[in-house]
Amino acid sequence: MKLKGHTENVRSIVLNRDGTQCLSASSDGTIRLWSLGQQQCVQTFRNHTEGVWTIQANEAFTNVYSAGRDRKVLRTSLKDPDSPILICEEAAPVLRLELVPDESSLWVSTTNSDIRNWSLRGIDSWKPVDVDGAPVAVPLVSTPDLVIPGAPSIKQYRVLNDKRFILTKDTDGNGALWDVLTGRKVDNLGQIDLEEEAKRRNKLMFVPNWFTVDVTTAMLSIHLDEHDALASWISGRDMDAIEGGNFRWPTVNYGKMMLESLLEFWPSASCNQTTQYEQNVLENGTGSNGTSAAGGLAVNGVSGDGNSNHSLSRRPYFHIPEHTPVIFSEVNGRTLFRMHARDAGGEIENILLKENVPQWVHDVVVDGKEAPFNKMTFCLVQFGLVQSREARRERLSASELIQIRKVVEHVYDRIIRPAMQAPAGDNPRSSNSSSGPSSQGDKRSPTPQNNSDYQPTVEELEEMIDMYCGEQKLDPGLDLRTVKYYHWRNQNTDLVLQYKMKRH
User: Fold this and answer.
1) SS3 for 89?
2) Which contacts of 66-72 are long-range, i.e. CB under 8 A and separated by 24 or more positions?
3) Taking the complete model, does pTM exceed 0.85, yes or no?
4) Residue 493 pLDDT more than 90?
């Protein structure tokens, strides 16, 4: 059955008790009464000046209560549609009405977060006020009987550079810091300037986007997509800094950790298949899929000496609040299935999850599949010789999480040291070697002891060798992807790093 008449979206529909009639409200500003048997509109009410978003009818289906964008709450008699009664006027557009069954009051929610209850006492005897012989609509009530205060709604947000924390600002101007991985508010910040606070908290680091944010519901909604969710590998040192020195895995993937936490209670999840996992951990320190705990999963209940008397369980490192809503939807936004995180262990939810969980989520959560590491190609060249045709560039490929100090070690071991140890007259720039430092330092030892087998410490190497990207001297603690994002102009070409000897 198709009922045609409204010129814009239909926002609300109410059926009478026997299903023979219905009322519809539309963004076109009208309310229509339909005969379902005749499949046609029998009456149109035009009492609102803007879109009507919500309607309610009484049990006898003789009165319709309506409200919407114009903020006015009206009662219209279906027998006398030309004399609507103005019940009240809200301070914001009205989203929803709920009529008390005995018609003694009406609950109203708006785009503000408060919910108000308005009395309908005396409405049947209420008459418009005459002003110079013309009726003027005066509200039945000016103040609500009851107000349920709501929390201020989030209106602005900024995702910090670490792609884990989000700053928000609500309608009262107060700021808050949220942790995406734990699904919790970390701190209330009071009145803030959002941009200045984001600048203060942002660190010089680059992490690929692995989620998107939506605040149209006045709350933070985090969306994970197949193409981006598993792109965010994080080094253990960065996690260790955030977790206060308690993080012990070398690398983790934010998206994998999030998915495992959201579906922690699902019986099919690999974190709940502990028998084979326990045996493998006790025997060789790996999980059932051959991966170590570096995949972002903690092994709880194991003593520091690996005492096997403790029970083992493979659980997510972070735990999402059990009441967190989890929604699976298609690319076009159509919802397939929704639940709370804690409900994943239910019998019905377990069946629905098996039917609706996307394959890429199944691969991660059930099969324990690891996300692929991202590698980066870059070139090494001696400082000042980037434009020289004679300078030989060493082209390398490494994990994008490699720090510049590791590149410094490579420069020393593969370029500087062989050049220093080369006999007099030998050319250190053979076809299989990289360009070395200037000839004045080729034969000198890096140590006062003149010991060619001496291996400098990391600190000593950082005192000997500087790394540059263009003219920018690099902090040894930066990783390759951060250097490329912030200091390399052409993101579509290989990164070029230059090394420079400060001393020998």
Assistant:
1) strand
2) 66/25, 66/31, 66/97, 67/94, 67/97, 67/108, 68/11, 68/25, 68/29, 68/93, 68/94, 69/27, 69/93, 71/110, 72/48
3) no
4) no
